[in-house]
Design a protein that fits this description.
Length: about 210
């Protein structure tokens, strides 16, 4: 059951990203322009959905590999839950009203933002062992969003392009952008710590109800 579920969710994530990529490049005349490809894979939504899909598929198809074992760790899967929940939350709260996608593009936008996050959360609730994640995981989980932020600032300064309006230095300036990103980093930290707390509560409940 677990492997079937993860295979379905992982393949769905890969297909959704692949279709979005095709639509983006096709909209530019069908040419696989290097700049368009770099821009596409500079969206947090895209990278995080690929990460989530890999976390679903690697333990199924390569369970004994380093990659499969890495993504099977409760600490890693808990961190990814936080990332993918932020993807859906930020889209719903800040981006959906300014999203100009239509048709097939909009359908797969919904898959990436509204379908994949619940699928990964459900996997975490059902299949990930509880009680093995420490509070330190909340801080360790910040490595990924901080690395993404660093890439976004460096690439944005070079290309004069930013993937999201709330981190657009050209329009906001550095003080406003840094204020926005500080708020997001705090949201990441709060969410990751909340997940650790939920993990511990579930473990306590399991211990009380186990024979």
């Amino acid at each position: 059951m677990k492997n079937l579920y993860r295979t379905f969710a992982g393949v769905l994530g890969i297909v959704a990203v692949a279709v979005q990529y095709w639509l983006v490049t096709h909209g530019k005349g069908g040419a696989l322009l290097p700049a368009s490809t770099v821009h596409f894979f500079s969206f947090f939504t895209i990278v995080t959905n690929l990460l989530a899909a890999l976390a679903m598929l690697a333990p199924v198809f390569a369970p004994d590999s380093r990659l499969g074992q890495f993504f099977d760790r409760p600490s890693v899967r808990t961190a990814i839950v936080g990332y993918i929940v932020i993807v859906g939350t930020v889209y719903y709260a800040l981006l959906r009203k300014i999203d100009n996608a239509t048709g097939l593009h909009l359908y797969f936008e919904y898959v990436l933002h509204y379908v994949m996050p619940p699928l990964f959360v459900l996997d975490w609730l059902l299949f990930v062992p509880k009680g093995e994640v420490g509070w330190r995981n909340g801080l360790d989980a910040l490595a990924y969003p901080l690395a993404y932020l660093a890439w976004t600032l460096v690439h944005g300064a070079y290309a004069s392009w930013y993937p999201y309006p709330f981190i657009d230095v050209l329009k906001l300036g550095y003080p406003r952008m840094l204020s926005n990103t500080a708020g997001l980093i705090l949201a990441f930290l709060a969410l990751e710590l909340a997940l650790v707390a939920v993990d511990r509560l579930i473990k306590q409940y399991q211990n009380k109800t186990s024979p």
